[in-house]
From TrEMBL, chain A:
Tree of life domain: Bacteria
GO CC, one annotated term: plasma membrane
Leader peptide range in chain numbering: none
Similarity comment text for this entry: Belongs to the binding-protein-dependent transport system permease family. CysTW subfamily.
Positions of the ABC transmembrane type-1 domain: 75-283
Protein name stated in the entry: ABC transporter permease
SUPFAM superfamilies in alphabetical order: MetI-like
Locations listed in the record: Cell membrane
Topological category with respect to the lipid bilayer: Multi-pass membrane protein
Annotated source species: Thalassobaculum fulvum
PANTHER family with a match to the protein in the record: INNER MEMBRANE ABC TRANSPORTER PERMEASE PROTEIN YDCU-RELATED (PTHR42929:SF1), INNER MEMBRANE ABC TRANSPORTER PERMEASE PROTEIN YDCU-RELATED-RELATED (PTHR42929)
Keywords per UniProt: Cell membrane, Membrane, Transmembrane, Transmembrane helix, Transport
UniProt cross-references to PROSITE patterns, sorted A to Z: ABC_TM1
Main location: membrane
From TrEMBL, chain B:
Residues of the ABC transmembrane type-1 domain: 71-281
SUPFAM superfamilies, A to Z: MetI-like
GO cellular component: plasma membrane
GO biological process, any: transmembrane transport
UniProt KW Nucleotide-binding keyword: no
Similarity comment text for this entry: Belongs to the binding-protein-dependent transport system permease family. CysTW subfamily.
TM ranges: 12-36, 75-94, 106-127, 161-180, 201-222, 258-282
Protein location: Cell membrane
Keywords of the record: Cell membrane, Membrane, Transmembrane, Transmembrane helix, Transport
The protein, known as: ABC transporter permease
C-alpha cells in the first residue's frame, strides 16, 4: 500500500456512512432549528425571522402560575412516566442481567437466555402493544380472573388505555435497553473481586451493593439514558396504550405537523431536544460526581 | 462459582427471570391463539371455536387499506436497508480502526442518532424534503418539464430510506466495534506479508472471519426497518409501511382480524430471526471446521 493509500483509506471507507448522517440527521436537525424561527400561516411556512413560535410554546406558562400551562403540564406528565419507567426497568433490568451474568454458569446457556430476552426486540412494537388488549381489556383475562376470584365486584377500567397500561407497555418494550448495557458491564467485572468480597466476609447483598453496583455504573448510565430519552420523545406507546387520551410532547408535535404548522412543531421539537440533552447531561454528571467521591 | 450447589438466591432470581420471560412472550402468545378464534369469536378469551376465518378475511384485505401492498413495501424497504446497513457499517467499522480527522464527531453523531427522539428526526427529514419540494417547484418556472406531474421528493426509497438508516446504522456500527475489538490483526499482517493486496486481505481473510457477525448486523438492519414506526411517521410521503398501517388499524379494527395480522407479521419476524440465528450457527461451525489446517501436514 502506498503512503497515500494508507492515510486516505479511512476517509472513503467512512464517507458513505458519514453522508447518511449528514443528509438525514445533522442537516434535518439544523433545519428544525432554522424553521423554528420562521413564520407561518394557514397553508404555508414563511421564511421570515420570528420568535413567536417559542412564545407560543410557553404561552401563559409564567402568567398562569401556579396553574400549569399546557407545555409544563405535558412535560410534567411525561417526566412522571419517565421516572416511573426508569425505576422499574432499572430494578428489573439489573436483576435479569445479574442472573444472566453471575448465576448462569455456561456460556451457551448465557447466549440462549440472552437471546430469549432479545428476540421480542426484533418484532413489531405496535403488535406487542396490541397484544395487551386480550389480557387487560374489560373482558380480558386479568379482569376475568379477578372477578372469578372475587377480588373485585366489577371489571376494572384502569387496566387498559390508562397510565397503568402505558407504563406497563414501556417496561414491556424497553427493559431490554437496560439489560444489555448492564449485562455488558457485569461481564467485564473481574470475578476474583467477588471472591475477595466473600472472603472478606461480605454478605450477598453487601457484595451486590458495594462491588457490583459501583462497577456497573457505566452500564446503568447508558441504560438510563436510553430508557428516559425514549419515554420523553415517545408518541406511539402513549398514543396506543393511552387510548389517544393522554398528552405527550411527541403527540403535540405530531398534531401540529398534521395541521402543517411546521414552525410551531419545530419550536416544540427544539425545546424537547433541549430537555432531553439536559437530562442526559444530568445523568452523565451524576456518575462523574460519584466517581469523584 | 461453578460446581457449587445452587443457593436460594439462584432459585429466586431464576423465578424472576422466568416470570420476566413470561411477561415478554405471554401477550404475544395470547394474540397468536386468539387469531385462530372462531368466526363468532371476539377480541378476548374464551376461544369461540377454532378456525382460519380471520386469516381468510385478512387475505381478502382489511377494509379500504391495501395491507398487502404495505406489507410488500415494508419487506422491500427492509431488504434495501439491510443491505446498506451491512455494507456501510462494515466500511465505517474498518475506518474506525484508525484515528482519522472527524472520527470523534462522527461517532458522537452516530450515538446521538440513537438517543435523539425519533419524532424530532422524523420532523427534520419531513421538513428537509418539503423545502426541497419547494425548491423543485420554484425551478419549474425555468424548467417546466421538471414539475410536470411532480408531487413530492418524499418517498419510500428517499426520505423513508434515510430515516430508517439513521436508526439501523448506529446498531450496525456498535456491533462492528465489538467485532473489530476482538479481531486479531496479525491475520491481516500475515496476509500482507504473503503479498495480498488490501482487497484480497479483506476478501479472503477479514471477511470470512467477521462473516457470522455480519449476519447479526443484517438481522438488526432488516427487523428494525421492518418494524420501524416513529421515524417513518412524518418522513415517508404518501405511501405507508406496514407498521404505519398497523398503527392506524389499532383504532379502527375491532375484530380478531388485527390479531391475525399481528400473527402474520410476528411470524415473518420469527422466520427472519430463526433464519439469521441458524445461519450464524452454521457459519460458526463451518469456521471451526475449516478455519485452521494446523497439524494437517502439507497437502
Amino acid at each position: 500500500m502506498s503512503a497515500f493509500g494508507k492515510t486516505s483509506t479511512p476517509y472513503w471507507q467512512a464517507l458513505p456512512f458519514a453522508l447518511v448522517f449528514l443528509l438525514f440527521f445533522v442537516l434535518p436537525l439544523g433545519l428544525i432549528v432554522m424553521v423554528s424561527f420562521w413564520d407561518y400561516n394557514g397553508y404555508q411556512i414563511i421564511p421570515a425571522f420570528t420568535g413567536q413560535n417559542y412564545l407560543d410554546v410557553f404561552d401563559g406558562c409564567i402568567a398562569d402560575l401556579p396553574d400549569l400551562c399546557l407545555t409544563f403540564a405535558t412535560y410534567l406528565s411525561t417526566l412522571e412516566f419517565g421516572l416511573m419507567v426508569w425505576a422499574i426497568t432499572l430494578v428489573l433490568g439489573f436483576t435479569v442481567a445479574y442472573f444472566l451474568a453471575f448465576h448462569v454458569r455456561t456460556l451457551t446457556m448465557q447466549i440462549v437466555l440472552f437471546l430469549l430476552c432479545t428476540i421480542p426486540f426484533w418484532t413489531s412494537n405496535v403488535i406487542r402493544m396490541i397484544s395487551w388488549i386480550p389480557l387487560l381489556g374489560r373482558n380480558g383475562l386479568v379482569n376475568d380472573t379477578l372477578l372469578r376470584l372475587g377480588l373485585v365486584s366489577e371489571p376494572q377500567d384502569w387496566l387498559l388505555y390508562s397510565h397503568f397500561s402505558v407504563v406497563l407497555a414501556f417496561v414491556h418494550l424497553y427493559t431490554l435497553f437496560m439489560i444489555v448495557p448492564i449485562f455488558n458491564s457485569m461481564m467485564r467485572i473481574d470475578r476474583s473481586l467477588l471472591e475477595a468480597a466473600r472472603d472478606a466476609g461480605a454478605s450477598g447483598w453487601q457484595t451486590v451493593w458495594n462491588v457490583v453496583v459501583p462497577l456497573c455504573k457505566p452500564g446503568i448510565a447508558i441504560g438510563s439514558i436510553f430508557v428516559v430519552t425514549i419515554v420523553m420523545g415517545d408518541f406511539v406507546t402513549i398514543g396506543v396504550m393511552g387510548g389517544q387520551q393522554i398528552a405527550s410532547i411527541g403527540k403535540i408535535i405530531q398534531v401540529e405537523m398534521s395541521y402543517l404548522q411546521f414552525p410551531a412543531a419545530a419550536a416544540n421539537a427544539v425545546v424537547l431536544l433541549a430537555v432531553v440533552l439536559l437530562i442526559i447531561w444530568g445523568l452523565t454528571r451524576m456518575i462523574d460526581i460519584r466517581k469523584e467521591l | 462459582m461453578t460446581g457449587q450447589p445452587r443457593g436460594a438466591a439462584f432459585w429466586i432470581l431464576a423465578l424472576v427471570f422466568a416470570l420476566f420471560v413470561l411477561f415478554l412472550y405471554g401477550p404475544t402468545i395470547a394474540i397468536v391463539l386468539l387469531s385462530f378464534q372462531g368466526p363468532d369469536g371476539g377480541l378476548t378469551f374464551p376461544m369461540n371455536g377454532v378456525s382460519f376465518h380471520w386469516f381468510a378475511k385478512l387475505y381478502e384485505g382489511v377494509g379500504v387499506v391495501d395491507i398487502w401492498a404495505a406489507f410488500r413495501r415494508s419487506i422491500r424497504l427492509g431488504l434495501v436497508v439491510m443491505g446498506l446497513t451491512v455494507v456501510l457499517s462494515v466500511a465505517a467499522g474498518l475506518a474506525f480502526r484508525r484515528r482519522f480527522a472527524g472520527s470523534g464527531p462522527l461517532f458522537f453523531v452516530t450515538v446521538a442518532s440513537l438517543i435523539v427522539p425519533s419524532i424530532c428526526v422524523s420532523l427534520g427529514i419531513g421538513l428537509e424534503f418539503r423545502l426541497l419540494d419547494d425548491q423543485v417547484n420554484a425551478m419549474g418556472g425555468d424548467f417546466p418539464w421538471l414539475v410536470d406531474g411532480f408531487t413530492t421528493t418524499m418517498g419510500l426509497f428517499t426520505s423513508g430510506l434515510g430515516a430508517h438508516l439513521t436508526w439501523t446504522l448506529p446498531f450496525g456500527l456498535l456491533i462492528m466495534f465489538a467485532v473489530f475489538n476482538r479481531f486479531d490483526r496479525s491475520y491481516e499482517e500475515a496476509a500482507r506479508d504473503l503479498g495480498a493486496t488490501a482487497w484480497q486481505t479483506f476478501r479472503y481473510v477479514v471477511l470470512p472471519i467477521i462473516g457470522p457477525s455480519l449476519i447479526g448486523v443484517a438481522l438488526f438492519g432488516f427487523t428494525l426497518s421492518y418494524d420501524e414506526l416513529a421515524r417513518s411517521s412524518q418522513a415517508i410521503g404518501d405511501v405507508n409501511t406496514l407498521p404505519l398501517e398497523l398503527q392506524g388499524l389499532t383504532t379502527t379494527v375491532t375484530t380478531p382480524e388485527i390479531y391475525a395480522l399481528g400473527t402474520v407479521t410476528t411470524a415473518v419476524s420469527f422466520v427472519v430471526i430463526g433464519l439469521a440465528l441458524a445461519l450464524i450457527l452454521w457459519a460458526r461451525r463451518r469456521q471451526e471446521r475449516r478455519g485452521s489446517d494446523a497439524g494437517q501436514g502439507m497437502v
